[in-house]
Amino acid sequence: MAVITAVIPLYKTISHINIDYMDDWKRLVEPYARPLFFAHSRMTRGKTLGVRGMVIEDNRRVLLIEHTYLDGWWLPGGGVDALETTGDAVVRELREEGGIIALEAPKLLSIHSNERFFPGDHVLLYRIDQFERTALTSHAEIKNAEFFDFDKLPLNINQGSLRRIEEVLHGYPADPMW
To answer: What is the CATH number of the domain that holds 129?
Structure first.
């Protein structure tokens, strides 16, 4: 994936390349690249740790992102880097993927096992209410970043993301599984 993300910005600067074609290409390659990434992760770490951020605007809208390599809309987030706290990781991911600068410390909402997606993976969900918007920096990875009204979420939202939003909105207990 590192090679792909390093090369894609170059393609986006060439005017005759169809960006939608490049996104389609990444979506075709992703199912084959994912096992390689998982194998590398498993060899270098016994468990993996990721974060997702729920950015809420005006108590009625939530930030979702659309990847260039996965279908649907997701809460922004990603892996925790070496020597990085989970709070720092979610702040970094929100800046990169959503163009969000946190003006407060992220609030830990819940911890989930992501066994269905990748055995040994865990995801921490954080919430941010005070923020500023800026340009997102992860153009090769993120196709769109948009705020959606809670009652008008996209039909193709990732089911784990949808469950987390519903838990927060309705005060449901957090499901330990992502």
So the answer is: 3.90.79.10
Tell me whether residue 116 is in a domain.
Answer: yes
Side-chain-side CA neighbours of 158 within 13 Å: the count stands at: 18
What is the C-alpha separation between 82 and 114, in angstroms, rounded?
Answer: 20
Provide the pairing of β-strand 73-74 with 100-102.
unpaired
pTM of the model: 0.76
Q: Determine, yes or no, domain membership for 18.
A: no
Residues in the chain, total: 178
Nearest to 57 by CA among 133, 122, 145, 147: 147
Q: For 74-96, how does the pLDDT look when each residue is reduced to its tens digit (9 = 90+)? A: 999 999 999 999 999 999 999 99
Tokens of 142: 């993120």
For the chain, what is the total number of helices (H) and then of strands (E)? 4, 9
Q: Enumerate the β-bridge partners of residue 55.
A: 128
Domain that holds residue 72: 47-170
Residue 11 within a domain: no
The pLDDT tens digits of the residues spanning 17-66 come to 454 555 666 667 777 776 776 676 666 656 889 999 999 999 999 999 99
34 is a domain residue: no
